[in-house]
Write a structure and sequence with these properties.
Helix content of chain B: 55-70%
CATH topology of one domain in chain A: Four Helix Bundle (Hemerythrin (Met), subunit A)
Shape of chain B: flat
Number of helices of chain B: 3
Radius of gyration of chain A: 26 Å
Oligomer: heterodimer
Largest sheet of chain B: none
Number of helices of chain A: 8
Order of helices and strands of chain B: HHH
CATH architecture of one domain in chain A: Up-down Bundle
Number of domains of chain B: 2
Number of strands of chain A: 2
Helix content of chain A: over 70%
Structural class of chain A: mainly alpha
Distance between the termini of chain A: 59 Å
Strand content of chain A: under 5%
Largest interface: A-B, 67 and 60 residues
Strand order of the largest sheet of chain A: 1-2
Shape of chain A: elongated
CATH class of one domain in chain A: Mainly Alpha
Chain lengths: ~270, ~100
């Protein structure tokens, strides 16, 4: 362990250079820091909790359309991002570990690698959002109920094809869109609009939840960058690494949010196999 | 008074972090596999169960829950408690009233 510098404080007592005056020991200081960070994370849990609550209620009410809407998201991209984010959590854990063992150089390096993985995540997200936008999944003026209809029609036609196959008949009709709609329910017009609105609600929640998550990552980049700078300056030691530990807690929290978002947004309708 | 003692939190073994990462990867694959199965009404509980195990691994290992103070654990558990209240009471309200939408 490196030499511990001591300074003479106003009480004439010797304090460790990193020990704030109002704490008795470094351990007490560390525990207080951790406690404070967790108290902040508690408010974050409830902050995201509001969106999760909205999701829960509408998922409960419109479960069928949520499953269908979920099928428009790309599971491969979502899974890739899950792997990238968990990798970034690992590198963050390694950064904290290096700060605990007094390896300032690698603390800084692992932090920068963590930012790199975070940027990769947002890069994937950028192309994903762009694609979502182009296929009119973005709620608002550009939301296209018409496109939604086309997709519903294609699905219906596919089901009819399957049905024909199961009956053993080689030929199946691929009827007019009107017939498909009229075939099912006389009030399909009204129901169709409702379904379109329910699907739109899913995408509203998808965009809100993923962008709030992405916003947290952007904030994380700035904070991790600052901590990495101080790590390279040699500001942290096995006696004092709370800032690294706390930025780690923040980053792992962001990871946990994604761990829940991935199955709730991407995997709802996977079993339907479109 | 010279306070030469350092924080008692010893760094965890490197292998523990790698093992945790491996388990998180395995559970990610498991949740994708489960997503493609039709478990009916159990799909969401299964997905959330796997996510909860993953979250627990992150909290206990990566976030050093294993060496956190009891006071910190009160905060950790309080966050889940309040989230449960928010989701649980809202859902019980919606599920029991049968409001027409």
């Amino acid at each position: 362990m490196s030499a511990i510098k001591e300074t003479v404080q106003d009480h004439g007592q010797h304090h460790h250079k990193d020990l704030a005056h109002h704490f008795d020991t470094l351990e007490q200081q560390h525990d207080a820091n951790t406690l404070g960070m967790w108290a902040f994370l508690l408010t974050e849990v409830l902050f995201f909790g509001g969106l999760f609550a909205a999701y829960t209620i509408y998922r409960y009410k419109y479960s069928a359309m949520f499953e269908e809407a979920s099928n428009h998201l790309d599971i491969k991209l979502g899974a890739t991002n899950t792997v990238i984010l968990i990798l970034s959590s690992l590198t963050m854990a390694l950064a904290v570990r290096c700060s605990q063992t007094g390896n300032s150089l690698w603390t800084g390096r692992w932090l920068l690698i963590t930012i790199a993985f975070g940027l990769m995540f947002l890069g994937v997200k950028y192309f994903e959002w762009k694609h979502d936008y182009h296929i009119h999944l973005m709620p608002g003026k550009d939301w296209s109920g018409k496109d939604w209809w086309h997709w519903q029609y294609a699905k219906k036609a596919k089901d009819m094809e399957k049905e024909a196959h199961s009956k053993g008949s080689a030929e199946h009709s691929f009827p007019d869109r009107k017939d498909v709609l009229a075939d099912n329910d006389p009030s399909l017009g009204v129901r169709g609009i409702q379904e379109s609105q329910q699907a739109r609600l899913f995408f509203l929640l998808y965009f809100c939840m993923t962008s709030l998550h992405a916003l947290h990552m952007l904030v994380g980049f700035v904070l991790i960058g600052i901590i990495a700078y101080f790590a390279y300056q040699g500001a942290y030691s096995p006696d004092y690494y709370s800032p690294v530990e706390n930025i780690g807690l923040y980053w792992h929290f962001v990871d946990i949010v994604w761990i829940f978002l991935f199955p709730l947004l991407y995997l709802l309708g996977a079993h339907m196999g479109h | 008074m010279a306070t030469t003692e350092h924080s008692t939190h010893q760094p965890a073994a490197l292998s523990l972090y790698l093992l945790t990462f491996g388990m998180l990867m395995f559970l990610t694959l498991l949740t994708i596999f489960a997503g493609f199965q039709n478990f009916g009404m159990w799909s969401t509980p299964i997905a959330l169960g796997i996510a909860a195990v993953k979250a627990a691994l992150v909290v206990v290992i990566f976030m050093h829950g294993y060496s956190s103070s009891p006071l910190t654990w009160i905060i950790i558990l309080a966050s889940m408690f309040f989230l449960t209240i928010m989701l649980g009471l809202m859902l019980s309200d919606y599920m029991s009233r049968g409001w027409a939408m």
